[in-house]
């Protein structure tokens, strides 16, 4: 009987390590799948739908890895196998971190309205000129969507407002161009009082177009900005965040 228990214990120890190791392999495959989804779409190896499927299957694989890691950890704890327990814990932690990426994106998508065109001037949005052809070739419209989008923007992003700067217009325009280049945007056109550029997201390479319009007023130079995605019904808050960050950086550049 004692010999049988010892044999069972040794088997349990080996099983714990094997399960944790299998979980680690699955976690690695999940990481490769999820990390590769964006580049695969950017390089046109996959369609957007297939890239999202790759991301989803990667999350499922990470969930399976977490399950194997948990079982391995429990067996390792019962059989007092420190190495297997550490490996199982590491697999669980890694898998949960991988699962958190799409989960956080999903939560963000649910917390913002399904719009993709944000501007500081909803009554007279800055219009695209140099980027008209590029936007006409994309699914989303060139023209501002209208009052339905404006209403949702007012409710979700009330802080998106024009910026008024106490500086000469040429100085503001130079600062706008410098800030756009620092942000890594592709400049399409710089006019006497406007700038158009394209921002590309890091992971999937989504292209969002930006137009900035400067207007001289009695209080200074008013800066209006519009950021619009070429693809997708919802931008998951990206365009509003871009406008906020850009205007804050521009103001700091000119007032510091």
Automatic annotation (TrEMBL):
Transmembrane segments: 59-78, 85-104
Pfam families: DUF1499
Keyword Transmembrane helix annotated: yes
Keywords: Membrane, Transmembrane, Transmembrane helix
InterPro entries per UniProt: DUF1499
Name of the protein in question: DUF1499 domain-containing protein
Organism, as annotated: Halomonas lysinitropha
